[in-house]
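Example S7 (structure tokens).
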């Protein structure tokens, strides 16, 4: 049985990275806190008319935050800062943070009027990062990238003409989510995964199945052998990404 767990930090000082987007807050601070209150792992701090969402993933030997992210929800924008542990690919870490951030945005639906042009640019940039983990041919990846790039250009033209309507911005957001979901499905259809991709699939599965994994069911869904899944799980435990439930 495998469960997600706050990990012991490796040696060395982490580096810091981040990104920000323009956004206009549409709901009060108290309403946003209520929307996020079910997330028990999240620490929420208020400073004036802004909120800081703190997620500590691991601590050092002195129990100080080591691997963590802080999302600042401001009246006129959202800023995301996060740490990267030594030896970890910055692009892999950015993809994980972007996934976490988009999930938070879905919980805060209606709380912000987002600048969708900037969001699209971040998504487009993340596609380049994904090439590090997906074991697909160059032609397949380029076809996905080129398709989304074309859709991105079309969305930018639409966004320019819809600046004055928040309702129409919401439509653009739904289109973006559908495109992102379609891309995820297309990537999942690829039958050959690298170990790094399989680790991401396992982490996604744990998040969706109460931190538990059924080897037989997971293997059938992702078309990989149970032996390989077990081998990757052992590797994740050895590297401190997961721990075995006693």
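Recovered sequence:
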């Amino acid at each position: 049985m495998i469960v997600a767990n706050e990990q012991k930090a490796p040696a060395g000082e982490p580096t810091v990275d981040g990104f920000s987007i323009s956004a206009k807050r549409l709901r009060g601070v108290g309403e946003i806190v209520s929307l996020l209150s079910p997330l028990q792992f999240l620490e929420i701090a208020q400073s004036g008319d802004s909120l800081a969402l703190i997620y500590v993933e691991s601590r050092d030997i002195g129990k100080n935050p080591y691997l963590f992210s802080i999302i600042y929800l401001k009246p006129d924008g959202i800023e995301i800062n996060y740490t990267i542990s030594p030896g970890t690919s910055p692009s892999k870490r950015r993809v994980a943070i972007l996934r976490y951030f988009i999930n938070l945005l879905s919980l805060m639906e209606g709380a912000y009027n987002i600048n969708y042009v900037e969001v699209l640019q971040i998504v487009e940039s993340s596609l380049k990062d994904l090439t590090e983990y997906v074991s697909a041919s160059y032609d397949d990846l380029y076809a996905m990238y080129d398709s989304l790039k074309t859709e991105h250009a079309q969305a930018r033209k639409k966004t320019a003409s819809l600046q004055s309507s928040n309702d129409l911005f919401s439509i653009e957001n739904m289109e973006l989510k559908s495109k992102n979901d379609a891309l995820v499905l297309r990537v999942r259809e690829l039958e050959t995964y690298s170990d790094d991709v399989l680790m991401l699939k396992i982490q996604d599965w744990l998040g969706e199945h109460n931190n538990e994994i059924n080897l037989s069911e997971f293997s059938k869904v992702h078309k990989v052998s149970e032996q390989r899944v077990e081998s990757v799980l052992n590797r994740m435990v050895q590297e401190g990404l997961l721990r075995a439930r006693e």
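Notes on this example. The chain is about 50% helix and 20% strand.
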